[in-house]
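tool=predict chain=A
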Amino acid sequence: MRFGVSGGLFPHHIDEFQEPMASRVRELGFTGIFTRFDRDDPFATTDAQCRRVRDILRDYDLTMVQAIGHRPPLIHPDEGIRCRAVETLRAAIRIAARLGSLSCHTGPGSLAQIGAHGSDWSGAWDPHGGNWDPICRDQLVRSLKEVAPVAEDVGVVVGMEGHVLVTLNSAEMMRGVLDEVGSPAIRCDLDPVNWLTLETVFRNGPAIDRMVDVLGPRIFNAHAKDVVVQKRLVVHIDECPSGQGILDYDTFMRRMEALGSERFLVVEHAAVEDLPAAKAFLDRKAAELGIRVF
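tool=predict ok
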């Protein structure tokens, strides 16, 4: 198993990424990174900008696990918006390739998103009652089929993430979409917290087993965070750093390791000050489970 990290260690703009950031990643014991650079215009990022980052990563023996795909609304019924979303993701995939990234991370987007130009696609995980309309699933499949040839050509996997608030609201929905697209370059970034519900959160080990059983080798990498249920009405299921919640990491890590030791668990949604504890938790858990960390 391999551990990567994302979040506050890294800037929103590619030109702000510097050597001390890579050095800090190594000090913390991670070997992979997930950079967002989500406020850059994906149509304007240059080869030289990507090369500079790639050279830094090479010098510190770090793997670019994921680069941001800007999460445009691939589901949108408006063809003008959907086509622009496809072009944005295609541009992001090409950037990921120039960065030497294993994958380009994205999601289906949301009908609640604003912005239709450049990288201004905020609100990709925002709730909207239309996100589960059949047309959104159809548009997502259509968009991914249009994106897949670019990913295949440049050798980058598109890692799709799901959530209960968006079209990819379950492992079953994710599998159905991926299988219909039918490309080895379009796969799943598993984040089990995103699919937990009130019915599954307190006994989430079987839920994680179900997700992995359904998706199997379609899972490319996974995101590592944790989950808590807040004592507030009506229901508040919140995320927190790894080791601070009730996620069944025994099940999660065993199932990921069984898929292949080359896969990364990428720590996300942890403040910089929480990263040492999160990494120590993952190392301790791996040792308890007899999982070798590369």
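The two ends are 6 Å apart (CA to CA). The longest strand covers residues 63-68.
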